[in-house]
Design a protein that fits this description.
Radius of gyration: 21 Å
Distance between the termini: 19 Å
Helix content: 40-55%
Number of strands: 12
Order of helices and strands: EHEHHEHEHEEHHEHEHEEEHE
CATH topology of the largest domain: Rossmann fold
CATH class of the largest domain: Alpha Beta
Length: 282
């Protein structure tokens, strides 16, 4: 059950999209919504050299004060908007450099059931939070609901597409999506390019996960799709449109390079192009 919904706010026009999704989800489970307002402050080494003397110090102080004043205005507007939500809510503010904010968003996400963020890797201003999205996905331990630009939430999430691979990441995504699966009216399990090596029991790919998910109640359909040279993300989105899916559930794949996580190609491709909300977990 989802009882704590955390929604990322940054004072941009896309806050409204995320808040609508947060309210729609919270209304189903009588959840509490926390608006997490992140107000970036100047990254000091980037705006002034450390040995810049009094002039540099003056620039730093001026930029910091300007950032705080701008944040105050945005927070006031957001507080007024959240007061109109029909669910219990509060607003929480974080000030800091982008790197600091990414770490703090991770900490906040660990104390919620779900974090709602805008679709990353765009060119509409939301890309400044790409690093924060990756940090939450790979280090937060909870799922992220990714909202595409301009997407309004449906009254009910009826049709769910589950992208299945026999991996820990896909398993985590299914577990995090349990509440949505229970409320669905139809679930499609999609496997792209399944491993042709069958086990000793000769079961078909996805048979066991289909049996498990069917116990949530809704009818389950298994779809096997060969990519045939196409990008996996393209296949996923085509099948999601064909199923009229309200939600895509998938694992977030990547690899670690030193202390930095890099998203896998199929994961990034699906995220950056999807017009359907994605529930993703790692």
């Amino acid at each position: 059950m989802i009882k704590d919904v955390l929604v990322h706010l940054d004072g941009s026009p896309r806050d409204e999209e995320r808040l609508q999704h947060a309210e729609a989800i919270a209304s189903i489970w009588q959840s509490h919504v926390t608006g997490l307002f992140t107000n970036p402050t100047p990254d000091i080494p980037l705006v002034a050299p450390m040995n810049g003397g009094a002039a540099a110090a003056e620039i730093i102080v001026s930029l910091s004060e300007e950032s705080k004043r701008a944040g105050d205005v945005l927070q006031k507007n957001l507080t007024g908007r959240m007061a109109r939500l029909n669910v219990p809510n509060e607003i929480r503010r974080l000030d800091g450099t982008p790197g600091v904010l990414s770490n703090e968003i991770v900490t906040e996400a660990r104390c919620a059931d779900l974090l709602i963020m805008s679709r990353p890797y765009g060119s509409d201003g939301s890309e400044r939070w790409d690093a924060a999205f990756e940090a939450v996905l790979f280090e937060g331990g909870r799922s992220v609901l990714v909202v595409p630009p301009g997407h309004r939430p449906p009254d009910v999430i009826r049709r769910v597409l589950v992208c299945w691979r026999n991996t820990r990441e896909a398993t985590r995504a299914v577990a995090e999506a349990a509440c949505f699966l229970e409320k669905a009216t139809k679930i499609t399990i999609l496997t792209v390019d399944p491993d042709q090596k069958k086990g000793a029991d000769k079961t078909e790919p996805s048979a066991d996960i289909a049996k498990h998910i069917s116990r949530f109640g809704p009818p389950v359909e298994v779809s096997i799709a060969p990519s045939e040279g196409r990008a996996i993300g393209e296949v996923i989105l085509e099948r999601a449109r064909r199923a009229s899916a309200d939600l895509i559930v998938m694992g977030g794949y990547g690899h670690s390079r030193a202390r930095e996580w890099i998203l896998g190609g199929a994961t990034r491709d699906t995220l950056s192009k999807s017009e359907i909300p994605i529930l993703m977990a790692h």
